[in-house]
Amino acid sequence: MTFVDTEEGHTAPRATSADIDRLRYIATTATAKLFAQIAGGRIRCESEATLQLHLGRIIATVADLELVDSRETISIELEKPLADPNGSRGRIDIWFQITDRDGVEARCAVELKFFKKARQREPNNRYDVFSDIARLERCADVADVGFMLVGTDHPHYATHPRYSENTQDFDFRDGRAYRSGSELVYRTERPYGSPITLEGDYQFTWTVLPSPPSFGYMLLEVAPQMVAAAPAAGDAEGE
Question: Using CA atoms, how far apart are residues 174 and 118, in angstroms rounded to an integer?
Fold first, then answer.
């Protein structure tokens, strides 16, 4: 059994592929249940904070149903800070960990965005999604797998025909792909943020719900990479 350092400064057995599969099941099942409840009207969601709260609650429920051994435990945190003396790595929106009977700690990080058509903030919203993916890639010290969740009632993010040349790099529409090492550049006169380059390859797939019209979500799996920490982009004001 291989042991690794955790963010608390102690060692623990490394999560196996089966452990990561269980995290993946919990995250994908909780997300599908959340958006089914939003579409069905059981949950009314008008803000990112509300989405975060409900997703955290459903993750805890799904995870609890997955635990069958009395020695298994789950812990969950919202707005988990990432260790960094400069504070440039930011916080993870939702983080949860399952510890099994043998002390194996399987950890998952979720970043989320919720974009309402009535509060359009484009193209900065698209930049922020890629910035969050970059943050997930740099969180291998606290997570074995990560997920980027984008929810919206606006087809602009999933099926919009075309973006402007100045911001077309930041494109996660349904069926689009990103190739590792490609530099994403904000080409306006006053860029909203610095260029972003990701480590992984990504295929973007959206789930569109039957109601309300155009409501949907993208859940993208991100593999945390052992790369040098860099300042998180996207904090500056721009146009």
Answer: 21
